[in-house]
Amino acid sequence: MLSRLILQSFVFPPRKAAPPPIAPSASPPGSPNLSSPTSHDLHSPLSPLSPSSPVFPDGLMTPLWLAKHQSRIPAVYLSFQTLDSDPSNDAALKNHINDTRNTIAKSGFKTRYALVLVSDDAAISPLDFEERLAAIRRATSLDPKTSCFHFDVSDSQTDLPTFVSSVLRALQPVCIDYYRDLTKHSRRKRGRASPPPLTAAASRGTSQVLTMNGWNVRYDFKLAIFAEFRQEMDVAQRHYESALEELFGPEGSLENTPSWSVRWQEARLLCDIIAFRVLRCQIWRGMTSGAAESWYNYKERMRDLIDRRGKGTDNSYGWEAWEARWAKMMAQLIEMADLPVFKPIDLSDPEEQSTGSAIYAPAEKLYSTMERMMPFHLLHHPGYWWRLACKHVMARKRKAEAIPQEDRTLPSETAAAQLASRTRTYDTYMVPQPHEEAPLSGHSTYDYLLDLQSQTERVESIMSDRGQARAVQQVKIDLAREFSRAGRYDEALQTLRPVWDSMAWRREKWFDLAVEVLELLYESAKKTGNMKLRAESAWELTYQRRCRSNNTLSVTNFQQP
User: Fold this and answer.
1) How many other CB atoms are there within 10 angstroms of residue 119's CB atom?
2) pTM of the model
3) Residue 184: which domain range?
4) In what helix (H) or strand (E) does residue 268 lie, and over which residues does it extend?
5) Are residues 471 and 488 in the same domain?
């Protein structure tokens, strides 16, 4: 019954787009009717060749293609059926299995079918059961090693996790063969001298079509995805890098598509996706230094592109948002990779406590021969990236606050010339428009402080385990300063109290930093009416200021001849 419910709710996507509406034929008698369904070259609903596709006629890729292969077209359809003690039900079971297989075959997709027979009746004798099971396998042409499995619920010796693992191991070669077939199909299509023609009815009047360079990007991306599904990460990386070079190349979409158009922004997003997947492949393969260098090179390459295309990165809140998003993605990627070098230390173990946890992954052999390693050649732990994300969030906030007032007005209240100037000035890639990022009302659509607070918590949880207390305190001071600027003094005070209690700068005579903390603490205590804390911070502030003054005087006297 479970299998029937799944089959009824699971629907394969259409393999071909529907033909365009048939227009009345104006052809002379006896001439071919070009509007008939047989004259159309039908392609995938997601192909740039199909008029109904979101990338028609010159788009590169749509996220729907990846979603299709990840969730809508399985490599294996695994069905669960109950084998009860009544042999008379076996005929219906065989028919249902064959109907399911035929339905999958008629879909046109090469999805494999596999079956798990679940028995829970101990009254079935082993001999009868083996005979019935063999009969079912013969009638349905299922291979007992790769497509037909049995699980006995009543057998206490059967371990469910072990059984699941064994099924997955048996199905893995089947899945690999499935994606290898898709790879061969994509390679054959790429080997054609030219892309297939557009659908006949849509080709008339269509001047802008996807270039051969764009088709190469599509094929490289598809081949890389299928290689990832086969867990051949080295092959996937090569295809991703090839696609990235095509996009950035002289004939690529980023150079030949009108700047900041919808298609250009789509190509930029595809670049980000591919670059991230390159890093994922490298970290999977243990190439930590290669991943760090690839990220740095990609960032500089993208920075150069944005600067050349006119909007620039120096005073752009959009660029800071891009950097913050990438730092967050890098942190999450390294956390999910669970690299052994970044394993948290056991603070109760004196030996681990003395060695500490690694701040960065050591360079692989390829980089060990270099005379001098640059910092960006070493992959740092996730806390470093979370701290970097905090830095760029604050920079985004500063640059958004610097937006002129005339650019913060609503479009309906702005002159057309000013709107055009605004469009040419601001990079709004994956960020709100200026009037939403920094509205005159003061309530932005993006909550800087919420994002900054959550990222600060991640920095604290990671860096505290690595003994980087000063870095944690600096990030918390930055957060408290932002709370104070926003008038949220209670939260500023709550953030500063732990820093003040355990401030290492006090005993190490870093007077400038200590004074900065105390001034912020005093102001927050004053605004919240905490008289006790206000008096305590004022007392120490006076002392720290005097120490700073004396220290400055001593240094000045020392430098005099």
Assistant:
1) 20
2) 0.89
3) 2-13+41-198
4) helix 262-284
5) no
* pLDDT per residue as tens digits for the range 319-363: 999 999 999 999 999 999 999 999 876 655 655 554 457 899 988
Are 416 and 489 part of one and the same domain?
Answer: no
Q: Which of 17, 13, 73 is nearest to 45 (CA)?
A: 17
Do both 144 and 216 map to the same domain?
Answer: no
- Same-domain pairing of 113 and 170: yes
Token pair for residue 27? 């052809």
* 440 and 502 belong to one structural domain: no
**How many Cβ atoms are within 10 Å of 94's Cβ, its own excluded?**
16
Find out whether 186 and 219 touch, Cβ atoms under 8 Å: yes
Cβ atoms within 10 Å, residue 118 = 15
Contacts 24+ apart (CB under 8 A), 133-138: 133/83, 135/90, 136/83, 136/90, 136/93, 136/94, 136/97
Residue for token digits 């960020």?
A: 431
Give dist(CA 421, CA 431) in Å, integer. Answer: 18
Helix (H, G, I), strand (E, B) or coil at 431: coil
Tokens at 546, concatenated = 């005097």
Residue appearing with tokens 């190490």: 508
Domain co-membership, 418 together with 517: no
Question: What is the DSSP secondary structure assignment for residue 345, as one 8-state letter?
Answer: P
> How far does Cα 310 stand from its chain's mean position?
27
